[in-house]
């Protein structure tokens, strides 16, 4: 497949820009190869090691590209590939950084989680294929590649959610996720075809050049709205969020982490590029006000997500709803755009928030995986007194909770601050105010977990029989990342805002 | 770099203690907490700056570099001290060590975590009093909440969950209100500031460079922001009627935590009021002098009356803080050297004396396991040293001359009588002075019923003198109270130098 695509690329150097995605795909294939060579249950350690090493290698390459300036303005600008179907630029690399680091954490954590399961090789390779899809999503520059890469990311995810074949919740979640995903794919495809009907093109830049036709504004508006619906599904935004709590709760916890962090970020990566590149604010005809749609979406999503999270009795469901709330914050990146405003700052702030979110949210779900591994129950009460048996992990979880709530000593505070600040700077102080109030309210349900772990006394004696190395390593890695992103936020936000600014 | 060293050493000590085994944690924490004392006293001895850090004065031990840039505004790592913050830094380091020692008897559960959190709180408090960039300051300001939440919630009394959550939610929402108010000011200033450094913002606001924002004109924006920021800090102080979290938090918190809560955390509120409201927006403060002075007087009288009505010794001391902090607000709004300087001095004095009182109540509680006034009488017979220090501390609270409380209150009253910001200020002062009578009333009443008279005690515990390590911190605090009362100039000189620019416009 790659050879065929290679023939079209003009220089040998150009396709190497896709190295992060290629590495992920190759790792997935290697995992399948291992499974073929040792058909009777290959070693779990080897599989997890290969998966983690592959994603970390991809992470390192992405980081190297980002630092070296691949596809950025200072080295000649974005690299278009395959007739503009894909484009590698700073933004795609920034998002790939999120996907790869989350994939690595999930792979390491899955080592312990899968100890008792069969079909482990499939699990790892599906995860890596989904990550490949996400990495391609971030580079998709044509509505066709957008659709294909989105499906490449989604199809393995459906299977992964239903991975626990004997668990009714997991299978049910997978089925729901698949059905809603199929519907929203259809909606997205129909929206794309409407946009194609108006503009006669699928490449984002050409679409932007052809949308000024006011006669077809109604059809275009419908198409844009349907595309928005497709992305709202992928990012678990209201009103296409119903699958998320079910899928996150039923899925194996590492997959919940994967979906709510990486997959969501991938949805945003596509949404950012498509709406900014294909439907630029200055060019869209009157009546196609997608910024207004995103404003409504952002406010409703963050408010509904937060209030629903506050009423949950199960920790994993609470996290699922709270991740809907965080989708609302990230949507500010598209909701606070104006023609000629500081759009790069706003979009960059959203991207930086998604990066911090990748650490703290993955960490939180992986902590739940750890707790599931120990056989502790799912409700807040079941978490009572966990800190006295597992203090280090509880400290990490406390860091995640307070960081998600936006309390200062952690990365989440700074990313939210910059996000809201940028929104005010763009003139959307009311959007920032809604976000800030929501963020303050979220402290209520996040601190419930902390309270249960540290302050409540355990209901019954329970001993931790094992200290899973992989899960611990992944949780601690995420915790340290969340902490270090406060003092080290400078380069992150500067990179994010610089690469976002080149889109406008 | 001595300030960074101070914060870093405290923070590292917290980490070390957190992972140390319980058996050593208490002694280790006490030993490590001596390091910041040495550092802060060295700072105090070497202090040679002058003026107000926000209004063009020199800044001692300053560090300033850009941390990150957001939307054209630089966020700095900017720390330093002046005559207002240095005394509070010294108070924080000294009181933390004494609180740690006073925790040896009552804390017997999960000790390494307890002492680790105490030191973590100290590190954050030092940050609050030394940070001169709004962003860095706000990080520390909010970070104080986290260890406090655990300290009350894990080691507190029977109702600790409620108290911890109430404290957390109350003060966090207050911070949000304050944050929004302050950020509105920054946006109103627009291009006239290029960073969130407090001196830059203070000088721009004083120079009248505020423009309107979000549909509000400059004057309205300033007033609205002032009120938002004031409310945010008033909850922390706390002033009536925003004080209801305080008695709950105090009563549930273990003694050493109460000591830090009353001794240092409440000062965060008044310190921030001084730095933000009264330094940056004196015009609005002067225009709102009647409501602010009214709130101050109500806090003084109402807090004292509430204390008078309590049966629980700890509640009495807790409500008396509401009353004492009212004096501080009165001194601030007076806008005279003695008023504002006295308020700053009173922060230190109240930190020492309320710490002393909480510790004394704690020592009595460790022995008797009750704090109810009705359950005991004649405690002085069995615990003469503790009772003696309790009485001395109470006299300090009432304002006995040659003790720190007297100096603070005297400066405040002198300053607020002479105040010219409003013709009714002498009236407010006279009303507030009436609070002294009530203070004397509830303290004498409480002591007479618990400490004196024939010994009787409803309980099965053997009432005897407390061990040395319980009484020693009390004695140190009493000594410091007397030293500061006899020689207020140890701090008052540098305070005055830092306060004067606030009143005169400070070299603008």
UniProtKB/TrEMBL annotation, chain A:
Residue ranges of every copy of the NADH:quinone oxidoreductase/Mrp antiporter transmembrane domain listed in the record: 140-442
Residues annotated as transmembrane: 12-34, 46-67, 87-111, 146-165, 177-199, 219-243, 255-276, 288-307, 319-339, 351-371, 383-407, 427-448, 469-489
Pfam short name (any one): Proton_antipo_M
GO cellular component, one term: membrane
Membrane topology value: Multi-pass membrane protein
Highest taxon in the source lineage: Archaea
Compartments, record wording: Membrane
Primary location: membrane
One Gene Ontology MF term: NADH dehydrogenase (ubiquinone) activity
Biological process according to GO: ATP synthesis coupled electron transport
Keywords: Membrane, Transmembrane, Transmembrane helix
Record's protein name: NADH-quinone oxidoreductase subunit N
UniProtKB/TrEMBL annotation, chain B:
Transmembrane annotation, as ranges: 84-104, 125-155, 167-189, 210-235, 255-274, 286-310, 316-335, 347-365, 385-412, 424-445, 471-492
One of the record's GO cellular component terms: membrane
GO MF annotation terms: NADH dehydrogenase (ubiquinone) activity; NADH dehydrogenase activity; ubiquinone binding
Domain NADH:quinone oxidoreductase/Mrp antiporter transmembrane: 131-432
Keywords from the named record: Membrane, Transmembrane, Transmembrane helix
Membrane-related topology note: Multi-pass membrane protein
Superkingdom classification of source: Archaea
Record GO biological process: ATP synthesis coupled electron transport; electron transport coupled proton transport
Compartmental location: Membrane
InterPro entries reported in the protein's UniProt record: NADH_Q_OxRdtase_chainM/4, NADH_UbQ_OxRdtase, ND/Mrp_TM
Main localization of the protein described in the UniProt heading: membrane
Similarity comment text for this entry: Belongs to the complex I subunit 4 family.
Designated name of the protein: NuoM family protein
Species for this entry: Halobellus ruber
Lineage: Archaea, Methanobacteriati, Methanobacteriota, Stenosarchaea group, Halobacteria
């Amino acid at each position: 497949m790659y050879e065929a695509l290679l023939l079209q690329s003009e220089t040998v150097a150009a396709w190497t820009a896709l190295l992060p995605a290629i590495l992920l795909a190759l790792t997935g294939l290697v995992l399948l190869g291992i499974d073929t060579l040792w058909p009777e249950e290959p070693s779990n350690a080897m599989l997890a090691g290969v998966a983690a090493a592959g994603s970390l290698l991809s992470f390192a390459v992405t980081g190297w590209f980002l630092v070296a300036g691949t596809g950025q303005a200072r080295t000649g600008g974005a690299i278009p590939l395959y007739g503009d179907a894909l484009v590698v630029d700073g933004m795609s690399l920034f998002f790939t950084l999120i996907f790869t680091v989350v994939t690595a954490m999930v792979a390491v954590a899955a080592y312990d989680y899968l100890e008792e399961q069969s079909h482990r090789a499939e699990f790892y390779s599906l995860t890596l294929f989904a990550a490949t899809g996400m990495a391609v999503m971030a580079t998709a520059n044509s509505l066709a590649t957008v659709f294909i890469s989105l499906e490449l990311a989604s199809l393995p995810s459906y299977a992964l959610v239903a991975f626990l074949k004997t668990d009714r919740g997991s299978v049910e979640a997978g089925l729901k996720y698949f059905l809603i995903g199929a519907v929203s794919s259809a909606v997205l495809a129909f929206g794309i075809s409407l946009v194609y009907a108006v503009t006669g093109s699928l490449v984002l830049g050409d679409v932007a050049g052809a949308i000024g036709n006011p006669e077809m504004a109604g059809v275009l508006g419908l198409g844009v709205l349907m595309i928005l619906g497709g992305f709202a599904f992928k990012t678990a935004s209201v009103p296409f969020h119903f699958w998320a709590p079910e899928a996150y709760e039923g899925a194996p916890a590492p997959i919940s982490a994967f979906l709510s962090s990486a997959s969501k970020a991938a949805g945003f990566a596509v949404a950012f590029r498509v709406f900014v590149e294909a439907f630029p604010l200055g060019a869209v005809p009157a009546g196609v006000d997608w910024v207004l749609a995103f404003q409504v979406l952002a406010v409703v999503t963050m408010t509904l997500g937060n209030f629903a999270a506050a009423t949950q009795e199960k920790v994993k469901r609470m996290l699922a709803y709270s991740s809907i709330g965080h989708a609302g914050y990230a949507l500010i990146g598209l909701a606070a755009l104006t023609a000629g405003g500081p759009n790069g700052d706003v979009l960059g702030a959203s991207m930086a928030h998604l990066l911090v979110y990748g650490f703290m949210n993955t960490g939180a779900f992986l902590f739940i995986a750890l707790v599931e591994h120990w056989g502790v129950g799912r409700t807040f009460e079941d978490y009572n007194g966990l800190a006295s048996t597992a203090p280090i992990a509880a400290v990490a979880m406390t860091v995640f909770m307070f960081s998600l709530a936006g309390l200062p000593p952690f990365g989440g505070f700074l990313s939210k601050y910059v996000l809201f600040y940028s929104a005010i700077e763009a003139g959307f102080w009311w959007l920032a105010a809604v976000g800030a109030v929501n963020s303050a309210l979220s402290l209520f349900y996040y601190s419930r977990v902390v309270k249960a772990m540290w302050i409540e006394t355990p209901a019954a004696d329970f001993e931790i029989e094992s200290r899973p190395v992989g899960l611990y390593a992944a949780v601690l890695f995420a915790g340290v990342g969340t902490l270090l992103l406060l003092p080290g936020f400078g380069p992150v936000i500067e990179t994010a805002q610089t690469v976002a600014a080149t889109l406008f | 770099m001595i300030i960074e060293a101070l914060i870093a050493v405290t923070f590292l000590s917290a980490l070390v203690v957190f992972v140390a085994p319980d058996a050593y944690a208490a002694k280790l924490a006490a030993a490590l907490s001596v390091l910041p004392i040495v550092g802060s006293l060295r700072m105090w001895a070497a202090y040679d700056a002058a003026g107000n850090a926000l209004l063009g004065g020199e800044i001692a031990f300053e560090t300033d570099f850009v941390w990150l840039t957001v939307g054209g505004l630089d966020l700095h790592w900017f720390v330093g001290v002046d005559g207002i913050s240095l005394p509070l830094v010294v108070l924080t380091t000294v009181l933390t060590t004494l609180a740690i020692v006073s925790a040896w008897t009552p804390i017997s559960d999960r000790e390494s975590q307890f002492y680790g959190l105490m030191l973590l709180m100290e590190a954050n408090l030092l940050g609050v009093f030394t940070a001169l960039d709004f962003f860095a300051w706000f990080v520390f300001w909010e970070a104080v909440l986290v260890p406090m939440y655990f300290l009350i919630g894990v080691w507190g009394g029977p109702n600790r969950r409620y108290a911890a959550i109430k404290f957390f939610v109350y003060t966090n929402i207050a911070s949000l209100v304050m944050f929004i108010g302050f950020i509105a000011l920054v946006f109103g200033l627009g291009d006239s500031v290029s960073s969130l450094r407090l001196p830059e913002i203070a000088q721009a606001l004083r120079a009248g460079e505020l423009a309107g924002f979000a549909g509000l004109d400059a004057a309205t924006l300033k007033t609205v922001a002032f009120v938002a920021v004031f409310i945010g800090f008033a909850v922390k102080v706390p002033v009536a009627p925003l004080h209801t979290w305080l008695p709950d938090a105090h009563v549930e918190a273990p003694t050493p935590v109460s000591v830090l809560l009353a001794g240092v955390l409440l000062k965060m509120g008044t310190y921030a009021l001084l730095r933000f409201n009264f330094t940056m927006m004196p015009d609005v403060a002067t225009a709102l002098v009647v409501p602010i002075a009214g709130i101050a007087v109500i806090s003084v009288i109402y807090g004292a009356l509430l204390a008078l009505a309590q049966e629980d010794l700890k509640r009495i001391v807790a409500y008396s803080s509401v009353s004492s902090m009212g004096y501080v607000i009165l001194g601030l709004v007076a806008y005279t050297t003695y008023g504002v300087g006295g308020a700053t001095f009173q922060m230190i004095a109240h930190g020492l004396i309320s710490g002393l009182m909480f510790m004394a109540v704690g020592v009595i509680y460790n022995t008797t396991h009750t704090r109810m006034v009705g359950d005991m009488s004649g405690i002085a017979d069995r615990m003469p040293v503790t009772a003696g220090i309790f009485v001395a501390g109470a006299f300090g609270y009432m304002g006995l001359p040659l003790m720190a409380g007297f100096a603070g209150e005297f400066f405040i009253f002198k300053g607020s009588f002479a105040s010219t910001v409003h013709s009714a200020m002498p009236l407010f002062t006279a009303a507030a002075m009436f609070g002294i009578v009530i203070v004397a009333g509830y303290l004498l009443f409480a002591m007479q019923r618990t400490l004196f008279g024939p010994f009787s005690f409803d309980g099965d515990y053997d009432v005897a003198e407390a061990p040395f390590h319980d009484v020693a911190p009390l004695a140190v605090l009493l000594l410091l109270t007397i030293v500061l009362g006899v020689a207020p100039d140890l701090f008052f000189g540098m305070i005055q130098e830092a306060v004067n620019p606030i009143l005169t416009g400070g070299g603008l």
